[in-house]
Design a protein that fits this description.
It is a single chain. The chain is α+β, with helices and mostly antiparallel strands and 133 residues long. The chain has a domain of 82 residues: Arc Repressor Mutant, subunit A. The chain contains five helices and five strands. The chain has a three-stranded antiparallel β-sheet with strand order 3-5-4. Strand 4 and strand 5 form a beta hairpin. Helix 3 packs across helix 4. The longest helix has 21 residues. The chain is globular. The relative contact order is 0.16.
Length: 133
């Protein structure tokens, strides 16, 4: 197992530990990535689809956040979400290796640690829906 204080690792990767040669996502980083409803929503969209466009995700999030049908989302609402995704949400999820984001094409896809996050994501949704124990 890698020493978490190993200064040879980049600072943002020091909380990733190695176990049997495979990187694992630390619980702190995982829970930080799942901390906001917007971040969980992006991950939820990738449960059924391996990849999505940033603009499509922004439209879907805007419909939910503004409580309007998707076809009634305004350009301003969509652009607000595109900006939030690009500058806040996606970098946080990328940092945790939950998604890969290609800003030039606007493509979002599942990251290396995505599968590890799924049970925690499902648990969060159960509690949000009021069906948690």
């Amino acid at each position: 197992m890698a020493d978490k204080s190993d200064r040879s690792l980049p600072r943002e990767r020091q909380d990733i530990v190695s176990d049997g040669g495979e990187d694992e996502l630390s619980l702190d980083r995982l829970f930080s990535a799942l901390a906001t409803a917007r971040q969980r929503a992006v991950l939820s969209l990738l449960v059924d689809e391996e990849r999505a466009s940033r603009d499509e995700v922004a439209s879907q999030l805007a419909a939910v956040e503004y409580d309007v049908p998707r076809e009634e989302v305004t350009d301003d609402q969509r652009e607000y979400l595109v900006t939030a995704l690009h500058h806040i949400v996606l970098p946080k999820l990328c940092e945790a290796d939950l998604v890969e984001y290609v800003s030039e094409s606007g493509t979002i896809s599942r990251g290396f640690s995505f599968e590890r996050a799924k049970p925690y994501l499902e648990l969060a949704h159960q509690h949000e829906d009021g069906s948690g124990t």
